[in-house]
Design a protein that fits this description.
Helices cover 81% and strands 0% of the residues.
């Protein structure tokens, strides 16, 4: 039985990484020709770009500050979105007051918001974290709001029959029922947070992955450009893995059959 489960897990991991492995193999074979005859840098050249940036003392500080900016914007966006989503989902009055302004804010692209944030917050870290917060807030809010609104009304009727207090209703019905929507919103919000990071790190930054990306384009360092893209991909994958682990802990019934 254990051998069968182990084989299934190995097969699942192999299937999940097969496309990535094929992409890496294509990249390797596509860049075997001399450097001046191809547009893409080879994996070895990208590794060389890593070593160059590391020797310059820019690589690890840039990764660290980018992670800090994303984490700060994500945390602030969640703190603001959770109460707004719960109120809008559970109350018609709250929905009428909150929903339309948030949808208008979500419709504005990040590059359009950046100049306004510079005027209001300056060109420091507050502007960068604020821009990420806006992207995170909208996605968490919408998914959490819909998660609350889609709860089975019979749950609330049952809570009335058993005379649940408001606190008990909130903790035992509303929050558990809204968790799937919240986790979905968190998954999308992390992706948008990394996209917003690219926009905000092009403004008055001396460190950050976005800064390295802009600098590599300025000096036509394609190897460093590809390295930055790879870093975004790896950090995005790590973010997805963390969310999946949180989801397994918060919603174990989703994975019970696996």
């Amino acid at each position: 039985m254990r051998k069968h489960a182990l084989r299934r897990r190995i097969a699942a991991v192999a299937a999940a990484w097969a496309s990535t492995l094929l992409l890496l193999l294509w990249w390797y074979f596509a860049t075997l020709s001399p450097a001046d005859t191809r547009p893409l840098p080879s994996p070895a050249e990208v590794v060389g770009a890593w070593n160059d940036l590391d020797a310059e003392g820019l690589l690890w500080p840039s990764i660290g500050i980018s992670l800090l900016r994303v984490a700060s914007g994500l945390a602030l966006g969640i703190v603001l979105a959770v109460p707004a989503g719960l109120v809008a989902g559970a109350s018609r009055v709250g929905l009428a007051i909150i929903d339309k302004p948030i949808h208008m804010l979500r419709a504005v692209p990040f590059p359009a918001l950046a100049p306004l944030f510079i005027v209001v917050f300056g060109i420091g870290e507050t502007m960068k974290i604020g821009l990420i917060t806006v992207g995170v807030f909208g996605l968490v809010y919408v998914n959490l709001r819909d998660g609350v609104r889609n709860l089975d009304p019979r749950l609330f009727e049952l809570a009335k029959v058993y005379h649940f207090s408001r606190a008990t209703l909130f903790l035992r019905v509303l929050l558990p029922g809204a968790l799937p929507g919240f986790m979905t919103g968190l998954r999308f919000a992390l992706t948008v947070a990394w996209i917003a990071l690219v926009t905000c790190e092009t403004v008055n930054s001396s460190t950050g992955i976005g800064y390295m990306l802009a600098r590599s384009q300025q000096f036509s360092r394609t190897d460093q450009t590809v390295l930055c893209i790879v870093l975004y991909a790896i950090l995005g994958l790590l973010s997805e893995t963390i969310v999946t682990l949180l989801e397994r802990a918060a919603l174990p019934w989703r994975y019970a059959r696996h």
